[in-house]
Amino acid sequence: MKKLQKADYIKMYSFMLKIRRFEERAAQLYGMGKIGGFCHLYIGQEAVVVGILMTIDKNDSVVTTYRDHGHMIARGLDPKRIMAELTGREDGYSAGKGGSMHMFSKENNFYGGHGIVGAQVPIGTGIAFTHKYNGEKNICRTYIGDGAMNNGQVFEAFNLAALWKLPVLYIIENNKYGMGTSVDRAAAGLDLYKRGEAFGIPGEKVDGMNVFSVIEAADKAGKYVREGNGPYIIEVQTYRYRGHSMSDPAKYRTKEELDNYKQTDPIEIVKAEILKKKIATNDEIEKINKDTLEEIKNAAEFATNSPFPKDSELYTDVYL
Amino acid sequence: MSTEILMPALSPTMTEGNLSKWLIKKGDTIKAGDLIAEIETDKATMEVEAVDEGVVLDLLFKEGEANIPVNKAIAIIGDPNEKVEVKKEAPIEKVIEEKKIEKNIETKIENKKADIIDKPSPKIEEDRNLSSEEITMRQALRDTMAEEMRKDNKVFILGEEVAEYQGAYKVTQGLLEEFGKERVLDTPISEHGFTGLAVGAAFKGLRPILEFMTFNFSMQAIDQIINSAAKTLYMSGGQINCPIVFRGPNGAAAQVAAQHSQDFSSWYSQVPGLKVIAPSTPYNAKGLLRSAISDPNPVIFLENEILYGLKGPVNNDINFSIPIGKANIEKEGKDLTIVTYSIMLQKSKEAALRLKEEYNLDAEIIDLQTLRPLDTETILNSVKKTNRLITVEESWPFGSVGSEIANIVQRDAFDYLDSPVIKVNSADVPMPYALSLEKLYLPQVDDIINAAKKVSYLK
């Protein structure tokens, strides 16, 4: 496994915290009516994307679902512009035309942000196809929700990826619920990571609340894919603390279940490790906390003050 | 009693075939099920089995003879002790054969029509680079793809049977050999998956040409076409474009019935973010496909199976292109305007001939070539001149391309109209199988003539 440096621990903690603070602020702005439409929060799942982040090359590509704010932050994108997209302003990553679910940054190889469940899976496979076609050593990380694992195009993509040995790493973020339907009520067979077996795609299940487990699995899987062996599936067991979207009160699960997961909070795990290893003091951590809160507060400030897109923008970007 | 073995129709649209090899010789005794010949069609080479038994009395064509019409006798079998009578007309096995014969007659009529109307428009004839040789639409499409693939390594083709099989309709013939399997990819039958894959590849900078075996199967992939390919440029605030061509046959072939005969032109034309092209001749197929492949946006390129065999001159300049969004005035006229596209151009031309001969009406024919963006200027200018308009297309009537044209014309040229616009479409039902009903379903020359008379207030 990748040897983690002191700075890596701080990086992980900072990113995970930044995602959480961002999402909390987004929830607040949503409540204030500053953010509209659908808004899917990543709180609880931070260790997944941050763990993967620790194993990647910046020329690798990423494509994910509509629960994408955390993925963008982990990609190193500017929280100000992400938040400005959520508020539908001209400084947003999609100039206010995409919204929470449809954000992209081509220069950072971030290919969305897709609103249709499952659609990103063939797309990510196609991006991997391009890496291979161009003779690049890069891979495409394609995130999939547990709900999409019952969607036909996912298996069509698996078949193509295995058939053509494409450099794609599929990461199933199993947060236990597809909207309000628990995995066991939607999937026949709960081992989602085994669903590539018929195509010869190796799969592995990982504890997604623990960032170190994610790093270990991602490192191994990433190497396998990068070496030209074809696709690989990691199923990351995670949990979203909030409902499916802002309008979901999550009455389909118990408070006990939620509290139980909070006992293994991914950010607390990293923090404890940092303190145990004496990588930083409590005061230093407090400083990170304060700075992060400030950064996100500024992002919200920026996002609510950025102008709405000009009316003339309605008709731009339909064709190139 | 002797029996004729007839040239079989090996596909719904086959009208003639080449006798590539005899597997029997004169004097052989053959049983039902024995292989007797190899026939090459425009799509493939296939072995033909005997359905009757007897001794081969005569082989009427030599190996290598080409363009033998369907239902033409190619061999005679029978009892060698009986005298051979070569019959001139309708053979045996009436029940089975009747349908084929009827179809053959239809085909012959169609061929005759084609002789009259297949001439290129005067404008095309002015093209100084026009080839002296005529090629088929399928060759024109293939040549253009090959030319663009030679120019740009990012262009590749994928689809079902495009590589080793050489294309279900032979449009990709020879491409695998020239460009290899990295750039000419056979896909499994999974439109949703491979369309999404191609869209992803286009987002990342490649320029895929995706062949749907027919556009009927594009419905399996419609989400990726509309929600991913067409919308992402907009949703990304202009960051991520999708330079892809979705091409393949659209509309009715011949007696393949409801699920395999549908015209999607107005469906796709409704979608902002897509460009939609429907060529009608080898000439414009070349020019338009080149523009489609070079375009940075997703393009729906609607071919027509029946037109694949249509021959015509082309411009062989490897940079010749026809701009997207520009209609072609196929024939100038002063009395009424016929706006059409794709295969209905041929029928409209025939109708125009008859309108002139029988009613002294001089029709102007506009071949749209591109459906989105629509060349409204050319349509409006024509209507301002002729004051009468009919639209002719194969799609269903509700919300068709003609419906949109009628809307635009009533809005922008109301004062120029001397009569209401009339649309000629297919029947508002699923495509039936029976030959007689299929003919009724599709717009025919008489329907166009009737519409033209109606807008001209002629009885």
Q: What does this entry look like structurally?
A:
The complex is a heterodimer of chains A (320) and B (459). With 320 residues, chain A is of the alpha/beta class. Chain A has one domain (6-302): Thiamin diphosphate (ThDP)-binding fold, Pyr/PP domains (Rossmann fold, 3-Layer(aba) Sandwich). Chain A contains 11 helices and 8 strands. In chain A, strands 2-1-3-4-8-7 form a 6-stranded parallel β-sheet, with helices on both faces. In chain A, a hairpin with a 2-residue loop joins strand 5 (177-178) and strand 6 (181-182). Chain A starts with 5 loop residues before the first helix and ends in a 15-residue tail after the last helix. In chain A, 53% of the residues are buried. By secondary structure, chain B is an alpha/beta fold. Chain B has 3 domains: 3-108, OB fold (Dihydrolipoamide Acetyltransferase, E2P) (Beta Barrel); 136-315, Thiamin diphosphate (ThDP)-binding fold, Pyr/PP domains (Rossmann fold, 3-Layer(aba) Sandwich), CATH 3.40.50; 326-455, Rossmann fold (3-Layer(aba) Sandwich). Chain B contains 14 helices and 22 strands. In chain B, helix 1 (94-117) packs across helix 10 (344-359), helix 3 packs parallel to helix 9 (282-294) and helix 5 (191-203) runs parallel beside helix 6. In chain B, 49% of the residues are buried. The chains are: A alpha/beta (320), B alpha/beta (459). The A-B interface holds A 61, 63, 92-98, 102-106, 111-116, 119, 121-131, 133, 152-153, 155-157, 159-160, 163-164, 316-320 and B 156, 182, 185, 187-188, 190, 192-206, 223-224, 227-228, 232-241, 272-273, 275, 296-297.
Summarize the structure.
Chain A has 320 residues and is α/β, with parallel strands linked by helices.
Main attributes?
heterodimer, A: alpha/beta, Rossmann fold, 11 helices, 8 strands, B: alpha/beta, OB fold (Dihydrolipoamide Acetyltransferase, E2P), 14 helices, 22 strands
